[in-house]
Every structure is written in C-alpha cells, then in structure tokens.
Design brief:
Helix 1 runs antiparallel to helix 2. A hairpin with a 4-residue loop joins strand 3 and strand 4. The chain is built from 3 helices and 6 strands, in the order ββααββαββ. The relative contact order is 0.17.
Length: 144
C-alpha cells in the first residue's frame, strides 16, 4: 500500500495554456519525499518544463517535503501551481513553527535545504500561520 494519498486529483483550473495545478497529501514517511519528486517530475513533463529548470524544481520539492516530514506534524501537503510563466510550490504540514534559514557547519550532514531553495528559486517564504513553506520559479515563455 502506498503511503501517498491524493487529496484531489490533478485538475486543470483554467485552459491548459494558462494555468496548471496539482495537489497531493502524503502520510508522513520517508517514502513521501521520493513520491513527491516522482509526481512532480511527471507533471513537469506534461507541462513541458524540462532540463535544468525541472531538476531545480524537483530538488526544491524534495527539500521542502523533507523539511515538512522531518520537522512538521501531521500529513504533508504538496501543491504545485503553474499559471503562465511562474511555477509556485507550496508544502504544508500542521506545525505552526515557521521554517527558517539556519547556518550549518561544515561537519553538519543536514540543514542546507532552505539554503538550496533560496538559491534556486526566484523567491521563497512562509505563510503567516507558519504551516506552509513556498517558493516560486520563473518558467521562460516557450518560443513557437
């Protein structure tokens, strides 16, 4: 039995050319990070977001879902929205303590996830209630 539970099926909320979205929720487990990467990569392919940009987006999803699994409480929610030329990732859990950048030492084996997200994404932040960490990537317009 897979620990992933779809909250809502992947749905298009507007014509496919202008807006794309998917939501999924995971039972917190080590497998949820791998599943989040796989699902995100599949949707990016459907949306023709490929190459280095797609890999950076998948890495950001991996880091945010890992943080929610390791430091959050309750189910881990992932929403990816792609209206026009921006793609927004939102990862939610029930822990009201907001994610924050923290310095990590050379010997630390973890603690660099948000630093990676901050470097790769155009912008990132945390919701007012502390439960959602998000980031935004710019997706260049495709030339015909």
């Amino acid at each position: 039995m897979s620990p992933a539970t779809a909250v809502a099926p992947a749905t298009t909320t507007a014509p496919p050319q202008t807006s794309r979205i998917f939501d999924v929720a995971f039972i917190p487990s080590p497998a949820c990070v791998r599943q989040a990467r796989r699902i995100t990569r599949a949707f990016l392919g459907l949306w023709n977001v490929n190459g280095e940009l797609a890999e950076n987006i998948v890495l950001a999803v991996s880091e945010l879902v890992t943080n929610a699994f390791e430091h959050g409480t309750g189910d881990v929610g992932l929403r990816v929205r792609y209206p026009n030329n921006e793609l927004q990732i939102e990862v939610t859990d029930d822990n009201p303590t907001p994610a924050e950048l923290r310095p990590s030492g050379a010997e630390d084996v973890s603690g660099r996830g948000l630093i990676l997200v901050a470097v790769l994404a155009r912008k990132w932040g945390v919701s007012e209630d502390g439960r959602t960490t998000w980031c935004v990537f710019r997706v260049p317009a495709r030339r015909s």
